[in-house]
Design goal:
single chain; 363 residues; alpha+beta; Phosphorylase Kinase, domain 1; Aminoglycoside 3'-phosphotransferase, Chain: A, domain 2; 2 domains; five-stranded antiparallel beta sheet; two-stranded antiparallel ribbon; 11 helices; 9 strands; globular
């Protein structure tokens, strides 16, 4: 495609060499033999950052992470401020050891490789989610939220939902929306936006899920990839965690965990007392906004950025989208349209597997 933003191999290597030179200079006096630092690629994330494990040839010296965060797409200065802010709030975010916002280079504390996603089993889920929810509560109790954080307002919510229309519907499926279909989607989007905006507006990580939480050697959960943080709806991070795009749990477990967290959040004053139906609508509908958006984002990562592995996660996101929408009569028209117009096209896609079983054990 003509608008690809996937960097060339030469560009990646050139920036790696510059990052290596910069890291060696900036870690002089921090670690022994910093001048012999070697960077081992750990790949990239869904954005444009690339990660390297920085290791000096000294036995017992803990590694660091060197991060290439291109300044044309990433705000390094805000990341540094957020990392310090979160640590001040008692959230285990990585310490920033060195940073250059102009070049988009950082060296940060290395939390290791024990992603929560890889540690979750039926035996460990209750304990690990309990710990992750306590971290989320600490994050949601944060005060004096940095003024630089944008408001997750209706305009931002709508921009995200339109990614679905452009990248999933039009570009991935090749489907042209009629005026009536566009009007239908606008009505649905407005409903989701209204529900998001009626919730208490708190600090939102915006990508709080099992691939951005790590089990550290200290025993604490470490929180990463918070550079997209905003001030927004209470339930957004909660549903990101419990209806994770990369792992699924039975609906009765998710409901129980969500309600338990809500009771705790009300008890400590994070949110005012609300009835169960309102609370679950907050949770379900902000999750639906997220999953509709993610259908578009995963399509864009594949088509624009060459990150094709995200296609394998689309069936689970489809399942979340339709399972939730089917529970609300207000969304019947959207469900009927999706099933009649989009599903036949989706089922022809090479990445498609039966979304009704996506995320099931042995699926």
């Amino acid at each position: 495609m003509s608008d690809t933003r996937d960097p060339s191999a030469d560009s990646i290597e050139s920036r790696k060499q510059a990052l290596t030179h910069w890291a060696r200079q900036n870690l002089q006096g921090v670690i022994p033999e910093a001048g012999r630092l070697v960077l081992e690629s750990l790949g990239s994330d869904a954005g444009f950052r690339r990660y390297y494990r920085a290791q000096a040839p000294v036995t017992g010296q803990p590694p660091f992470l060197a991060v290439d965060a291109p300044p044309e797409t990433e705000d390094t200065a805000l990341f540094v401020k957020l990392a310090r802010y979160l640590r001040d709030q008692g959230v285990n975010a990585p310490t920033v050891i060195a940073a250059d916002a102009t070049q988009g280079f950082l060296v940060v504390e290395d939390f290791g490789d024990r992603l929560l996603r890889n540690e979750l089993t039926q035996d460990t889920a209750c304990t690990l989610y309990g710990e992750a929810l306590m971290v989320l509560l600490r994050l949601q109790q944060a005060t004096d939220i940095p003024a630089e954080l944008p408001q997750y307002d209706q305009a931002m919510l709508r921009r995200e939902l339109q990614i679905f229309s452009e990248w999933f519907v039009a570009r991935l499926l090749g489907y042209s929306l009629s005026q009536a279909e566009q009007a239908l989607l606008q009505r649905v989007f407005t409903q989701l936006e209204t529900t998001a905006l009626e919730q208490p507006q708190l600090l939102v990580h915006r990508d709080y899920h099992s691939r951005n939480l790590l089990l550290c050697d200290s025993g604490q959960i470490g929180v990463i990839d918070f550079q997209g943080a905003v001030r927004g709806p209470f339930a957004y991070d909660l549903v990101s965690l419990l209806r994770d795009c990369y792992i699924r749990w039975p609906q009765e477990d998710v409901r129980r965990w969500a309600l338990s967290y809500g009771n705790m959040a009300m008890d400590v004053g994070v949110i005012p007392a609300v009835d169960e139906a309102t609370y679950l609508r907050w949770f379900d509908w902000v999750g639906l906004q997220r999953h509709i958006k993610v259908l578009g984002i995963f399509a864009r990562l594949h088509l624009r950025d060459g990150k094709h592995h995200y296609l394998a996660d689309l069936p689970l996101v489809l399942r979340y989208t339709l399972d939730v929408a089917r529970n609300y009569p207000q969304l019947d028209e959207f469900v009927t349209w999706f099933e009649q117009q989009l599903l036949p096209l989706i089922e022809q896609q090479p990445w498609y597997t039966d979304y009704r079983r996506a995320g099931d054990v042995n699926a």
